[in-house]
Each structure stands twice: as structure tokens, then as C-alpha cells.
Design brief:
heterodimer; A: mainly alpha; Four Helix Bundle (Hemerythrin (Met), subunit A); B: mainly alpha
């Protein structure tokens, strides 16, 4: 019985002779913990997106052009996500050597993504889109920085798991760790795609109703 | 007592070895019980700081100019730090980090939290946030005096106390606190979901665990709003960005800001701020339910309804935030929506109050100190909640919003009421934590002074509010419409505040004295049913349960069961198969149409 499904129970009537099922979720604690953490991060970026949509209506908003390198970065992040998924599958099939290669590739792609994001910052900075010149710029830097920090935290977990993969490739905890890294990478990819969609839609003027002051300011 | 144990499914290396040495055991400890005590003591210590600041503020209001050190700047700094410390660093930390950490694993029959290392990090991160906050007293310009809501633009404008460093440290401290809370919160939720012992279904959880569980969910979803607004304001302050800052002419000078929205900050802040009320209220609701049931020797009335009410309040608390913003200049139509949701939240809350009263009805009420505090909580929460019905209505709120009526309301409902539960909980569980009882006489003196004293402080403030005395003012001299009687009342309030504050030191003395000299309590002094009282050792040892985890056979409220030998049946007591009448008859009774 799952926790939600048990809410109709009348515990004062349950016969004491029976020991009912726990009602635990069929996942490892670390999986549940990561799922909850991803919910928290979703709330964080959701609130930032809400703030973005509110702030952009205030007249002084100038959408900034997305540097093309973002597409390359997106590709790197997607490849990293796929590599970690592949690593998780290979490990389950009992091929730790190839799983390790794929796992390292996944981390490397994430590193490339972060380097690419910094390059995008440098390009924008060179073009004069400074952090404080327009709120659209500030949001871009803030969103990418926070997303990058979450990926950096993921890389710390990745490094720990990579060590486990080397020292105990057959362990259950290692398989679990690789799976969790893959899940987190997928999650950050989805968050990034959502952020990118928000930035692109704004830049392309697909949210004209929101720009009620854009023509005058 | 007959106890059937169950072979532990997970007595692994993590819990198998008890840490040795003082530092491993008590400082860098991963044991949830030690972490709970660390959280509690830190929260109480920083709370004392906030208490002293409230004394200093009251001296200025009651006897203006009597303390030279309290000038205008310091007054606003005290207001700000008192509010922020009490709400975040005391109440939130104590309910979740303190009670949550201690009680969750013990009440659900687990050996520890599921991520003990992260749990330890959570405490040290919390301590760091406290140190950063306290450090702001020692930087040039002192702590921020922006008011606990930190509203921009004034929070970061020149002229506001602590504008140079204080506000930065405050925001950094809050961001760190959110990180600490997230680490703790992940633990509490995952532990409740995945580490319950055999037989402990969600609907057999004591209401204390339910309250803490749902409050943690609220915290995890609401604190990101504080995090986001904190980071954004830091950028406004440090890099000159304009998230919240409009174009401002300050002291004859045009500042570099333009176009930002102070209202955006208020939305973000209250999206956190209102759930925060329930983050400290829901654990209180849960604890009070268990205290009342135990000390009235009666099963909780309407357990299932109580759980649903906690869930409903938790859900609704996310759609009422803008009732804090009726006078902010937001779209007035929003006000109607938020007034509606605000009044709806009174329904599940009232269900809880009725159920507490019905639990007491025809109970075998023992006026122990925890019970006294619980009863006082119900009264105070009702009194504070009632004035919330006034303020929840736009037309009533507008004239009252900037008066002492609001100060009275929120202190009753989320200051005094939760603190009363905290005291009740501390008196109740202290014997489990230390193995000794708190001194009863001192406890009763502490209770009566605190209970009557807080009413002496906050009840008159409602009248001050109706007269129109504005809140946040440093002094009221020379304001024509304020009658002399208001000054007299302010003197009275100040004296009451000094007495109530002093009584808390009596409590601290009791805490320290009883830890050494208190009467030994035995394992289960309140003859309680829940698992934490059934541990093989008191205080519980490393891993809580010895070699075998308990099995749960019944819900948490089998008090005064007809036909039972004692007036309580612990959750882990197996059914007596040779006495089938016991539960059989109860079931038949309950199941009959």
C-alpha cells in the first residue's frame, strides 16, 4: 500500500493480530532522497521563472541575444546525459569496463558544458551585455550560474561514484550511484532545456503580451 | 512487558559500530539524538539573544529614553534581529532540527535518519548560518535594521541601519540556512517514508510525526523562495542590479537602480513567509495532539480527520501568501481571492481545535506541566487565530495593518502559541532525553508566569491597535491622537515583558539543574503508548533499539481501552492471543453500524 493510498485507513479499527505491510516506496532511500531534492530544485527554478515573467513586464526589459554556443553546450549536456544512462545500463548488464568509459565520458561532457557556459558569459561580456545593465542580462547570468552550480554539485557526486566504480565496480551501491548520477543528469538537462526555452521565447518575442512597455521604454 | 522483536533488516556497518571518544560521540556526531540536542541548544542560545533584544525594545516603548544605548538605529536593528531570529533560527530550527531529529527515528522505530552524514552536515551548516548572523553585530554599522521582512527598496538604501554590511550578512546567513534546512528536510521526509519499522503504516504514525513530516514538505517547497529572493537582493545590493530596486532618488542623489519591482520581492518573500507560519504551526499541532491524548489518557478524537486537516492546511498555506500584501499596492482584485483562501484555511484549523477539545472531553485529565502548556496553546492559538479572521479581510486589514493589532495577532498565533508547544514538548520528552524529570514546582511557576504574562503583554496590544497606535515607531512622544492611557498601557506591557523574560531563565535553570539532580524518570514516566518510550535503554543508546527493531501492532492512541489491564497499550505490545476479548470487542464495537 503506498503512503497516499493508505490515507483512508482507520487505524483504530485495524486488528492488532495483523502486521500490515510497511507501505514503503519500492525504492532505495537514496533514490527517494534524490527525487525529493529534484523537487526542491524544481521549486527553485520554477520560482525564478515566475520572477522572470513578472520582471519582464516592467518596461525596461531588453532581451539579450542568446550566443550560438549555447546550442553546442546543450548538445554536450545531452550527450553527457546519454552517456551516463548508457553507463548505468552497461553496469547492470555486467560490463564494468565499458560502463566506466561511458561514465567518465558523461562527466567529461558535463565539464565541457560548464566550460561552454563560461565561454558564453565571456562572449556576452565582450559584447557589452554586463550583469547589471539590464534585468534580462542579470536573469541570464543568474539562471545559468545557479544551473551550473547544481551541475557542479552533481560533478562532486560523480567523482565519488567514479571512485567507487574503480574500487568496487560490482557493488550494489556503485550501481545505485551510477543510476542516481544518470537521473540527476537527465533532470538537469530538462531544467536547462526549460530555461533555454524561456530565454529563446523571450528573445524571439513570443511573449509579446508580456512586453506591454517594450515599445515605449 | 511482553515484546516481540523483529530481526533487524538493516543492522549494517553504518549503525553497527558505536563511535568512541568525546568528539566522535558529541561533536562530530551522526547520531540523530545528539544532533537534535545540538540543534536545540543552539536555537535556545540564539533565542536568548532575541529575548534580550525584545527587552531593550520594550524599555524604549514603555520608558522612552531610559536606556541610552537604545537609539533609533539600534531600535530598528533589534526589531529586525528579534523577528528574524525568533521565526527562522529559533522556531524553525527547534521544531524541525530539534524535535524532528530526536523524535522521527524513535517514533517510527528506526535506528537513525537514513542519511546520518548529511544530517550532521545540516547541523553544522545551521550553526554557520547562526554565526554569520551573529557576526553582523560586530561589523561596521551593525546588523540590518530593515525590519524582519527586509522589504526593498529601503532594506538596501543608504540611511537604513546596517546597509553596508548588516544586510549582506543577513542575506548570506539566510541562504546558508536554507541549505542547512534542505539537508535536514531531505532526511526527515525520506526517513518517514522509507525507514518506518514493520507494522508502522503511515496511518499509525503519531500525529507529531505527521505534523513534522508535512511541515518539512512545506519547508522544502517554500524555502527556495527565500533563497531566490535572498540571492536576488544580494545581487541588487552588491552588483547594482535592479530586480527589486526601482529608480530611487536617495538623499538628493539619483541611484544607479531603475525599473525594479519591490512588489516582486514581496511576492517571493511571502510565498515563503506564509507557509513558514505553518512550518512552525504544524509540528506544534502534532505535538499538542500527542500531549493531550497522553495526559488526558484518551485516544485522540478523529485521528484520520486530524491527518487530513494537516494535509489540507499544508496545501492551502501555499495559496494565501498575498494576504500579507493588501496594502502593498498590488492589484486589488487579488485581495478578494486571497481573502477567500485565507478564510477557508480556518476550516481545517477549526477541525483540529474541535478534535482537541473532544479529546479532552470526559478524559482523565492530568494537569501535568506538559498538559498545562498544551491547554494554554489551544487557548492562545484560538485567540491569535480569531484576530487572523479580522486581518484576513481586506477592508478590516487596511486600517489595522500598520498598527499594534498586527503585532498582537502574529505574536499570539505564531510567537506565543508555538513557544508554548515547545515548552510542553520539552517538559514531556526531557525524561527520555536525560533519564530525569524536570522539577515540577519550577515547571508550574514557569508555566503560570509565561502563560499569564504573555497575555498581559499581547492582549492589551489589540486595544492599542484599535486606538491606532502605529507599529514600528521608535517613540510616540508628541503624537496628538495617542491618549495618555496608551502610554500607561505601554509601561504595563514593558513590565510584563521583563517578568516573562526573567521567568525563562528559571526554565533554563531547571533544564540544567534537573539534568544532574532531577528525579530519575524510568523508561516511560507518562505511561505513553508511542515507540520512543519503549526503547530498551533511557536515554536511548546508539542505534536506539538494541539488537532488534520493534514491531508495531496498533495505532498510537490506545489509551483507556475497555478491558485492558492498564490504561495504555504501547504500540509495540503484541496482541494477547489468550485474551481475544480485548481487541475483538473493541473492533466489534467500532465496526458496528
Amino acid at each position: 500500500m503506498n503512503p497516499l493510498g493508505s490515507l483512508g485507513a482507520k487505524p483504530w479499527l485495524q486488528p492488532a493480530q495483523d502486521v500490515p505491510a510497511w507501505g514503503r516506496l519500492p525504492f532505495a532511500p537514496a533514490q527517494v532522497g534524490l527525487a525529493i531534492f529534484m523537487a526542491v530544485v524544481t521549486a527553485l527554478f520554477g520560482l525564478l521563472a515566475a520572477a522572470y515573467l513578472m520582471r519582464m513586464t516592467l518596461g525596461d526589459w531588453r532581451p539579450l541575444p542568446e550566443p550560438p554556443i549555447l546550442w553546442l553546450n546543450t548538445l554536450a549536456l545531452a550527450l553527457g546525459s546519454a552517456a551516463l544512462q548508457r553507463s548505468s545500463t552497461l553496469l547492470r548488464r555486467g560490463d564494468p569496463a565499458r560502463a566506466s568509459t561511458a561514465f567518465v565520458a558523461g562527466g567529461g561532457c558535463a565539464g565541457a558544458f560548464l566550460a561552454g557556459q563560461i565561454a558564453a558569459w565571456a562572449q556576452l561580456d565582450a559584447l557589452g551585455y554586463f550583469v547589471a545593465t539590464n534585468p534580462a542580462n542579470t536573469f541570464f547570468y543568474l539562471l545559468t550560474a545557479l544551473h551550473g552550480l547544481h551541475l557542479l554539485g552533481g560533478l562532486a557526486a560523480w567523482a565519488r561514484t567514479a571512485w567507487h566504480l574503480r574500487s568496487a565496480p560490482g557493488a550494489r551501491a556503485t550501481r545505485l550511484g551510477v543510476g542516481l548520477c544518470a537521473a540527476y543528469w537527465h533532470f538537469l538537462l530538462v531544467v536547462w532545456l526549460a530555461l533555454l526555452a524561456l530565454l529563446m521565447a523571450d528573445d524571439a518575442g513570443w511573449m509579446p503580451a508580456m512586453h506591454h512597455g517594450a515599445g515605449t521604454g | 512487558m511482553a515484546q516481540t522483536a523483529f530481526v533487524d533488516e538493516g543492522l549494517d556497518h553504518e549503525h553497527g559500530h558505536e563511535p568512541q571518544g568525546f568528539i566522535a560521540k558529541y561533536i562530530w556526531s551522526q547520531d540523530h539524538k545528539v544532533i537534535a540536542i545540538q540543534y536545540t541548544l543552539t536555537a535556545i542560545a540564539v533565542g536568548l539573544l532575541a529575548l534580550v533584544m525584545s527587552w531593550l525594545m520594550r524599555m524604549q516603548i514603555g520608558f522612552p529614553g531610559s536606556l541610552e544605548m537604545v537609539d533609533q538605529e539600534r531600535y530598528y536593528q533589534f526589531v529586525t534581529m528579534h523577528g528574524m531570529i525568533m521565526v527562522i533560527y529559533l522556531l524553525t530550527a527547534l521544531f524541525l532540527g530539534g524535535f524532528g531529529n530526536y523524535l522521527i527515528p524513535l517514533m517510527i522505530g528506526a535506528r537513525d535518519m537514513v542519511f546520518p552524514y548529511v544530517n550532521m552536515l545540516s547541523y553544522w551548516t545551521y550553526l554557520l548560518s547562526v554565526l554569520v548572523l551573529v557576526a553582523s553585530f560586530f561589523v561596521p554599522g551593525g546588523p540590518t535594521g530593515a525590519g524582519w521582512t527586509l522589504y526593498p527598496p529601503q532594506a538596501i538604501l543608504p540611511g537604513t541601519p546596517g546597509r553596508d554590511w548588516g544586510i549582506i550578512l543577513m542575506l548570506v546567513s539566510l541562504v546558508i540556512f536554507v541549505a542547512a534546512f534542505t539537508m535536514g528536510g531531505l532526511n526527515y521526509i525520506t526517513t518517514v517514508l522509507q525507514a518506518r519499522t514493520r507494522g508502522m503504516t503511515m496511518m499509525r504514525l503519531p500525529l507529531t510525526v505527521w505534523g513534522i513530516f508535512v511541515a518539512t514538505v512545506l519547508g522544502l517547497l517554500a524555502f527556495p523562495a527565500l533563497f531566490v529572493s535572498g540571492v536576488m537582493m544580494l545581487l541588487d545590493r552588491l552588483l547594482g542590479t535592479s530586480f527589486f530596486m526601482p529608480a530611487v532618488l536617495s538623499q538628493g542623489e539619483m541611484l544607479e537602480y531603475s525599473g525594479g519591482s519591490p512588489l516582486l520581492f514581496q511576492h517571493l518573500f511571502w510565498f515563503f513567509g506564509h507557509p513558514e507560519v505553518y512550518i512552525v504551526a504544524l509540528p506544534g499541532f502534532g505535538i499538542v495532539s500527542d500531549l493531550i491524548s497522553t495526559h488526558a489518557r484518551k485516544n485522540i478524537f478523529g485521528y484520520r480527520m486530524m491527518v487530513w486537516a494537516i494535509l489540507a492546511i499544508g496545501g492551502l498555506s501555499f495559496v494565501v501568501w498575498a494576504h500579507h500584501m493588501y496594502v502593498s499596492g498590488m492589484n486589488p482584485y487579488f485581495g478578494f481571492f486571497f481573502a477567500f483562501t485565507t478564510l477557508i484555511i480556518a476550516i481545517p484549523t477549526a477541525i483540529k481545535v474541535y478534535n482537541w477539545v473532544l479529546t479532552l472531553w470526559r478524559g482523565d485529565i492530568h494537569l501535568t506541566v506538559p498538559m498545562l502548556f498544551s491547554l494554554a496553546f489551544i487557548l492562545t492559538f484560538v485567540a491569535g487565530g480569531m484576530s487572523g479572521l479580522f486581518l484576513g479581510n481586506v477592508v478590516v486589514d487596511v486600517p489595522l495593518s500598520d498598527t499594534y493589532f498586527v503585532v498582537a495577532h502574529f505574536h499570539m498565533v505564531m510567537g506565543v502559541a508555538p513557544i508554548l508547544v515547545i515548552f510542553g514538548g520539552l517538559y514531556h520528552w526531557y525524561p527520555k532525553v536525560t533519564g530525569r524529570m524536570l522539577n515540577d514546582t519550577l515547571g508550574k511557576i514557569h508555566f503560570w508566569i509565561t502563560f499569564l504574562g504573555t497575555y498581559a503583554i499581547f492582549f492589551p496590544m489589540h486595544y492599542l491597535g484599535f486606538v491606532g497606535i502605529p507599529r514600528r515607531y521608535f517613540e510616540f512622544e508628541g503624537i496628538a491622537f495617542i491618549p495618555d492611557s496608551a502610554h500607561l498601557l505601554n509601561e504595563w506591557i514593558t513590565i510584563a515583558a521583563l517578568v516573562v523574560g526573567a521567568a525563562q531563565f528559571l526554565f533554563l535553570f531547571n533544564l540544567a539543574w534537573s539534568a544532574v539532580r532531577g528525579r530519575p524518570s524510568g523508561a516511560n514516566p507518562w505511561r505513553s503508548t508511542t515507540l520512543e518510550w519503549q526503547t530498551p535503554e533511557t536515554p536511548p543508546g546508539h542505534g536506539n533499539w538494541g539488537a532488534r527493531l520493534p514491531i508495531v501492532y496498533r495505532w498510537a492512541y490506545d489509551f483507556s481501552v475497555p478491558g485492558a489491564a492498564e490504561d495504555y497499550i504501547p504500540q509495540n505490545r503484541p496482541p494477547e492471543r489468550d485474551a481475544p476479548g480485548l481487541h475483538g470487542s473493541l473492533r466489534a464495537e467500532g465496526a458496528a453500524p
